[in-house]
Design goal:
The complex is a heterotrimer of chains A (328), B (305) and C (343). Chain B has 305 residues and is an all-alpha fold. Chain B has helices at 2-8, 11-17, 20-37, 39-42, 83-119, 121-136, 139-191, 194-202, 206-217, 219-242, 254-262, 271-304. Chain B has a domain at 95-305: MetI-like (MetI-like fold, Orthogonal Bundle). With 343 residues, chain C is of the alpha/beta class. In chain C, helix 5 packs across helix 6. Classes of the chains: A alpha/beta (328), B mainly alpha (305), C alpha/beta (343). Chain A binds chain C through residues 51-52, 165-168, 195-201, 203-204, 207, 222-226, 228-229, 249, 252-253, 262-264, 266-271, 273-274, 276-281, 283-284, and chain C through 66-67, 174, 176, 204-210, 212-213, 216-217, 231-235, 237-239, 257, 271-272, 274-285, 287, 289-290, 293-294.
Chain lengths: 328, 305, 343
């Protein structure tokens, strides 16, 4: 594999510093993602966990500068291989998208163009970044299709997306993401739309590919269980901020932030059968009605008066995790 | 008062006030509508009243041209009728026919579209084939055919009396498939939604589900096409009048005015055709622009829903 | 042959239920060229294939399976939304399939349904009050306006939505609140039986817990019987008394929750259980790998519907459809391997 520019030197593949994404809406300019920072080393797998509205998808899109109006990146840096890609112009950014950083989305039927054959879509991706012949591009396509365990890949190139099942389509999407051997894959809810047995296969596949090719993975999902099996680090997001971050094992067995604790306790696996589940009262605040101080305070059982006034910042604890909470 | 405030602060008013084209066309349309419907009060003369017409006044130019008179600000037509009054009354007739025809189309089309879409099966196939056949007949062809029969059977005098309802019926019948198809498409989409299943689980009868549950949810596309249909209906009436099968000369509409002035263009009395023509264009333009704005406004909502 | 134990009266009984959907389209769409001649092609979705089960009063029977297994169709057929292609449905001993809408009316107050999509299950043009009053007014027109309003407020409080919001419209509520309102609508007629079709699948995790608790509370307070459709086995493990596993319209296994999770018999159940991601347990590659893709209900495989993906499949499985047997009292499985003692 060619040594890519971002691999030279440090181990740090991606460093996000104080990323803030705002949306210009009728009621004002409101932040959807607020001061998000994290680091990803080469080959490392990070899970970005949160419920809907937490801002995790927006973060994922912002990494590739894919936020469209009325959203915009307000401040912060996204350093990829030491280079700030958030400030790049579009044509420079396009060289990175698909080539060095790939993204996988939730619904494969929406990601794949229904009127083009798989072959056309894959070759198009390659030829957008490399100056090689169609035959050569097709060979790469076949290689990648085999890597994702799609049987008889030669036949697949001339087929259309609707001829495949959901699981196969997602495999194809993963194959397309792999075409140019990126160093980082961002997967936004890649298995939410799939059945449980297919989900398990796809997650296994992603894990295998990341390990074999030493690719970084940012897995964006709401499913704590899936994330706990695939990732090494977890960042929990709530209302646009990271409220807890640390090693997966640590967070899952010893969560510190009341929200993370609530989430884990609310899982049906957690409680005894037939008993009521632990529920977190209320719902996540929307952009329009953020409470003052800590965004979680209306729903928090450990609330202190300080929590309604001052926003807690991420600080490290003994266990090595970072938590943004006054009460811990 | 609460409702009014809600309306004022609504997104509808907000985006309306942001679009100068929408505001402009709304004002223009409002102007035409008020002018037209207040014609009996505002028009200087009553063109229907043959006693007021003096053929000696015929073909007088507008007031700013030598030969014109302030009594007839926009001139007179070939029979001595004041252009301004005739245009005012004519606008009223045109708009009346437009609205009436669309009301009929909408009533027929929505009812049939609802039944067709919800019932499905044979009923749906039959109704849609009928709609197809209806569409294959051009409005004008139907109007000419029916108009000719009507006029010869019942005499021109009688025809003049019933011209307005007749045109409303003809144009209304010609275009109901538009509504039927639109509503049917909506119904097919809504039928699959779970609130309809919930209504069936409650045990509500079919007519009630159609009327109370599905119909209100199909109104958005109906609104969108209605503006275009009104404009089309007015155009259709104008075209029919132009070929002599619409409004009679004694009860002018914009179309018949344009027609009556047509022969006089080359003899120099251009104002007889031009002014009604400008009004017609303005009216259609205003309606279409408003319709465009409404369609764009309703569009993102469609996706959200 | 149906093997059913002689147990106390069941609230709901389904016998040999079959539901096919003919999606061939009109005559013109069916015609196509085949081998030089014009032939008619019929496309039939075999959604439910000979399912037999019964539900005891007060219990929660969960039906699990992946997409295409027919569980949603099963629920809808039971509720009378689809007429069954063949088979019988009994409610409290009375046959209810094929009844006229008028004859079905008394059952409509006894059997209700909660749907999956919180955004499509409430009419966007009706206020919450109108949505909730409708079933009550329809079935009990004699109830006075004030009594109706009182009941609406009462049920809303029960499901955790403030009665003061009754005049708001569905789009003003969150997903979780809409599901509560959906449940309220079902409860307005005081039913005995509720079919819940994936009621929490579309909600966030923390809201799922709330709604699940609500469902359990309602069951306790009102003595409800649930038919709980879900693909999420960890939820099912928590709330269900018995579980039925379906695959491509066929019932694979039916038994109590403890036994299903403790010692699953059918190979598909085993694969399904091992595929559930468990918190903190790294199980990379250790789950039962199923080969091939899920076939569609249009072209059902011959014999056992699962044989194409089953690691234990043999010739008999490819040819013969397994019947439901009862290896132990109360446990039902449809598998040749189990019958032969192989598994």
């Amino acid at each position: 594999m060619k040594i890519q520019p971002e691999h030279q030197g440090e181990d740090k593949l991606l460093e996000v510093q104080d990323l803030t994404v705002k949306f210009a809406l009728r009621k004002g300019i409101l932040p959807a993602v607020n001061n998000v920072s994290f680091t990803l080393n080469r080959g490392e797998r990070l899970g970005l966990v949160g419920e809907s509205g937490a801002g995790k998808s927006v973060t994922g899109f912002a990494l590739l500068n894919l936020i469209s109006k009325p959203g915009f990146i307000d401040s912060g840096k996204v350093l990829f291989g030491g280079r700030d890609i958030s400030a790049l112009k579009d044509d420079e950014m396009r060289k990175i998208r698909g080539d060095r950083i790939s993204m996988i989305f939730q619904d494969p039927m929406m990601t794949l163009n229904p009127v083009l054959t798989i072959g056309t879509q894959m070759v198009e991706t390659i030829q957008a970044h490399r100056n090689i012949s169609r035959a050569e591009a097709e060979r790469i396509c076949l290689d990648k299709l085999r890597k994702v365990y799609i049987p008889s890949p030669e036949k697949r190139l001339t087929q259309y997306p609707h001829e495949f099942s959901g699981g196969m389509r997602q495999r194809i999407v993963i194959a397309i993401a792999l075409l140019l051997e990126p160093s980082l894959i961002i997967a936004d809810e890649p298995t939410t739309a799939l059945d449980v047995t297919i989900q398990a296969e796809i997650m296994d596949l992603l894990l295998e590919l990341c390990e074999v090719h030493n690719m970084g993975l940012i897995l964006i999902t709401h499913d704590l269980a899936v994330v706990s099996q695939v990732t090494q680090k977890i960042a929990v997001m709530y209302a646009g901020r990271i409220i807890e971050m640390g090693l997966t094992q640590e967070i899952v067995t010893n969560p510190l932030h009341p929200y993370t604790q609530g989430l884990i306790k609310a899982l049906p696996q957690a409680g005894p059968r037939g008993a009521r589940l632990n529920q977190i009262p209320g719902i996540m605040p929307s952009l329009y009605n953020m409470p003052s101080g800590c965004a979680f305070n209306p729903r928090c059982t450990k609330k202190l008066p300080l929590c309604c006034e001052e926003m807690p910042t991420l600080s490290s604890r003994e266990s090595g995790s970072l938590v943004a909470c006054h009460c811990v | 008062m609460g409702r009014l405030k809600l309306f004022r602060e609504s997104f509808f008013v907000y985006s309306f006030l942001r679009d100068p084209v929408a505001i402009g066309s709304f004002i223009m349309l409002l102007f035409f509508l008020i002018a037209g419907f207040s014609a009996p009060l505002t028009a200087p003369t009553n063109p229907y009243d043959t006693a007021q017409i003096d053929v000696m006044n015929s073909e007088m130019p507008p007031v700013w041209i030598p030969g014109g008179s302030p009594d007839f600000p926009l001139g007179t037509d070939a029979q001595g009728r004041d252009m301004l009054s005739t245009i005012l009354y004519g606008t009223r007739v045109s708009v009346l026919i437009g609205l009436g025809a669309v009301a009929l189309q909408a009533f027929l089309g929505i009812s049939l579209g609802l039944i067709s879409g919800y019932t499905g099966g044979r009923v749906d196939s039959i109704l849609m084939r009928v709609a197809d056949v209806q569409l294959s007949f051009s409005t004008y062809m139907v109007a000419i055919f029916l108009g000719a029969i009507f006029q010869t059977a019942l005499g021109v005098g009688y025809y003049e009396d019933v011209a307005v309802p007749f045109l409303i019926i003809v144009i209304g019948l010609a275009e109901w498939p538009q509504y039927a198809r639109t509503v049917r498409a909506s119904v097919l989409a809504e039928k699959k939604k779970e609130y309809v299943e919930a209504a069936r689980v409650i045990g509500l009868p079919a007519w009630r589900i159609m009327w109370r549950h599905i119909l209100p949810n199909t109104m958005t596309p109906v609104l969108v096409i209605s503006t275009v249909q009104v404009a089309n209906a007015i155009m259709s009436e104008a075209a029919l009048s132009f070929i002599g099968l619409g409004m009679p000369v004694t009860k002018p509409s914009l179309g018949s005015l344009i027609k009556s002035g047509f022969e006089y263009i080359f003899s120099g009395s251009w104002w007889i055709t031009l002014f009604p023509g400008l009004v017609l264009i303005g009216l259609i333009l205003a309606i279409n622009l408003l319709g465009d704005w409404m369609r764009d406004f309703l569009n993102p909502k469609l996706y959200k829903n | 042959m149906i093997v059913e134990p002689q147990t106390p009266k069941h609230l709901l009984e389904i016998k040999n239920l079959v539901k096919y959907f003919d999606i061939s389209g009109g005559l013109l769409e069916q015609l196509h060229l085949k081998g030089g001649r014009i032939a008619r092609k019929r496309t039939v979705v075999k959604a439910v294939n000979d399912v037999t089960l019964s539900i005891l009063p007060g219990e929660t029977l969960a039906v699990v399976g992946e997409s295409g297994c027919g569980k949603s169709t099963l629920a809808r057929t039971v509720l009378g939304l689809y007429p069954p292609t063949s088979g019988e449905i009994f409610y409290a001993g009375q046959r209810i399939d094929g009844l006229s809408p008028k004859a079905m009316m008394p059952y409509r107050t006894k059997m209700q349904m909660v749907f999956q999509d919180p955004y499509a299950s409430l009419n966007p043009r009706m206020s919450v009050r109108q949505i909730l009053e409708e079933p009550l007014r329809f079935h009990h027109p004699e109830v006075s306006g004030n009594d109706v309003r009182d009941k609406v407020a009462q049920v809303m409080t029960q499901v955790g939505v403030r009665p003061g919001w009754a005049d708001n419209y569905p789009h003003e509520f969150s997903g979780g609140q809409r599901q509560r309102i959906s449940l309220a609508r079902a409860l307005m007629v005081d039913p005995q039986f509720i079919a819940a079709d994936e009621p929490i699948a579309a909600l966030d995790v923390s809201i799922q817990a709330q709604i699940l608790n609500l469902l359990m509370d309602a069951q306790e307070q009102r003595g409800l019987t649930y038919l709980f459709i879900s693909h999420d086995l960890s939820v099912v493990k928590h709330i269900a008394t018995r579980v039925a596993v379906m695959y491509l319209g066929t019932l694979c296994e039916l038994t109590t929750t403890d036994e299903l999770f403790g010692s699953p018999l059918h190979p598909y159940t085993q694969a399904l259980l091992s595929a559930i991601p468990r918190l903190g347990v790294s199980k990379q590659g250790s789950h039962v790998k199923l080969t091939g893709d899920v076939p569609t209900p249009i072209n059902l495989p011959s014999g056992c519907v699962f044989h194409g993906r089953c690691t234990f499949a043999q010739d008999r499985c490819r040819q013969e459809i397994p019947t439901l047997i009862e290896p132990e009292t109360g446990r039902f499985v449809a598998c040749h391997g189990v019958q032969e003692g192989r598994l």
